[in-house]
Design brief:
This protein has 2 helices and 12 strands; from the N terminus they run βββββββαβββαββ. With 193 residues, it is mostly beta strands. The protein folds into 2 domains: 1-35, Ubiquitin Ligase Nedd4, Chain: W; 38-190, Nucleoside Triphosphate Pyrophosphohydrolase.
């Protein structure tokens, strides 16, 4: 950042008084410009033992499979954002959403907040950000063609600890994911809470 979006003055990369991190600070109006992690919201929707996946029609990871997910918008709740992403990517209606997993991706300053729910009437179709959509049983999932490590981790936790299994209600999976897409897995799992 070179110029302040508030007043167009030049900015300096410095540690403001009372802070402990480098920030962009305007030399003219003293506005501190914070760059905070972005929230990605999504959902793992199931229908009759199968899960919904979307084949991406956008970069990054064009042509790879993913769960419906994307950046949260201003003015929406986490659940509303996850349901919106299902509509946009798969023309799907998400029902009975409950928090399933939270993944920290410090390498790219993102937090994935994933919900589990039901795909209404089992209906999905290609949305504006997808080349294809499908319902997959575990053996059918294209594991080597999944777009992001967080998607792989979410699906693995789902199959290891199905959200509707006895004794698992209300637990949330958490992990720090340090892997880049297409590289060896580097995940630190935390105890489900």
């Amino acid at each position: 950042m070179k110029y302040c979006p508030e007043c167009a003055g030049e900015v300096t990369h410095t540690i403001p008084e009372g802070d402990n991190r480098l920030r962009y600070v305007c030399n003219s109006c003293d506005t501190i410009h914070y760059h905070n992690p972005k929230n990605v919201v999504g959902c793992l929707l199931e229908w009759e033992g199968k899960v919904l996946l979307c084949k991406r029609s956008i970069e990054p990871r064009y042509g790879y499979w993913t769960l419906p997910a994307g950046f949260m918008e201003n003015g929406e709740s986490l659940q509303d954002g996850a349901a919106r992403e299902a509509r946009e990517e798969a023309m799907a209606t998400a029902e009975d959403l409950s928090l399933f997993a939270v993944y920290n991706l410090p390498r790219i300053s993102q937090i994935y907040i994933m919900f589990h729910g039901t795909l209404k009437d089992g209906f999905a179709d290609v949305g504006e950000e997808s080349l294809d959509v499908g319902l997959f049983e575990k053996a059918q999932i294209p594991w080597d063609e999944l777009a992001f490590p967080a998607v792989t981790e979410c699906l693995q936790r789902y199959y290891d600890h199905h959200p509707r299994s006895t004794g698992w209600e209300g637990r949330v999976h958490t992990a720090d994911i340090h892997s880049r897409p297409g590289q060896p897995v580097d995940i630190v799992r935390h105890t489900a809470t």
